[in-house]
Specification:
alpha/beta, Rossmann fold, binds S-adenosylmethionine
């Protein structure tokens, strides 16, 4: 495993960075766009190559944005694509943020906490610290038990379950989404609200159907995922790939939870 892969289970290969870019468009959330329109400053933890920045910038051209990520590869790439102007990307950990208290109106975490192990709870406390009173934390995290193919694609289901079990041995939690609200309350946030966020397509929208299948395939069956699938029967892997390439039929759904919490107005830092 490379150093970058240790920081993030899928690593930061060119293939994975390309997947993150496409995924950001597929998973764009109107609520996050709205929050960006209302904010003057935003910190994104685990910003990767900055794939979420273009839509935030479109939403609010005066938004001051900081992106931090543990991976130097990701940060270098983010700065080369999106740096300058109002966006700045730097290497830092979400568990020890190099910012003063009350520095931001909005802190965003998109698909980051699930891969952090127990440290994700420390990241929520750090987000609280750097938010101004009344500022908002936004989290978008996976719920892979909500991935649905109708009619079922059984080999891919087996891959999902095997991946989830193998990854959980490394502290990775692909069902973290619904666990975020409770932990935000424990971290001191109030007005915590959570929403189910399905990314779905019926077969009548073949382009979106295929885009969702491609993203699932690159994530669960890509080169970097092989570590988690090494004990799985190779025939199941082959069958699962064939299922994802099959013509759109019925419905596909990937599943997430969005949670928003507010820092108390009377918070003392
Ligand atoms: C799935 S990627 C998501 C990137 C981006 N948020 C997006 O939506 O495209 C997760 C990112 O979180 C970063 N990451 C993981 N643990 C971190 C930590 N403790 N502090 C900062 N970044 C972290 C990884 O390096 C990786 O780039």
């Amino acid at each position: 495993m490379s150093v970058d892969q240790e920081l993030y289970p899928l690593g930061h290969s060119a293939t994975e960075l390309g997947r993150l870019e496409l995924q950001a468009k597929l998973f764009e959330d109107p609520l996050l766009i709205h929050l960006a329109q209302e904010a003057e400053s935003c910190l994104e933890i685990g910003s990767g190559i900055g794939s979420n920045w273009p839509s935030l910038q479109r939403a609010n051209s005066t938004l001051r944005y900081e992106g931090i990520d543990l991976s130097e590869t990701a940060v270098t790439k983010a700065n080369s694509i999106h740096g300058g102007g109002r966006a700045n990307f730097s290497v830092a950990s979400a568990t020890s943020l190099p910012f003063r208290p009350c520095a931001f109106d909005l802190v965003v975490s998109k698909l980051v906490l699930w891969s952090m192990g127990p440290a994700w709870k420390t990241a929520l406390r750090e987000a609280y610290r750097v938010l101004r009173p009344g500022g908002l934390f936004y989290a978008f995290e996976p719920y892979d038990q909500g991935v649905v193919f109708e009619p079922a694609r059984p080999a891919f289901r087996e891959v999902l379950e095997h991946w989830g079990q193998a990854a959980s041995l490394n502290g990775i939690d692909l069902c973290l989404g619904p666990k975020v609200p409770e932990e935000l309350i424990l971290a001191g946030f109030k007005n915590v609200q959570t929403f189910f966020f399905p990314v779905l397509a019926p077969a009548s929208d073949p382009e979106r159907f295929q885009a969702i299948c491609d993203n699932l395939g690159k994530f669960y069956l890509g080169e970097s995922s092989r570590e988690f699938l090494k004990d799985l029967n190779p025939r199941t892997l082959l069958k699962a790939s064939e299922e994802l390439l099959a013509a759109p039929h019925g419905l596909v759904m990937d599943a997430f939870f969005v949670t928003v919490g507010e820092k108390c107005l009377d918070s003392v830092d």
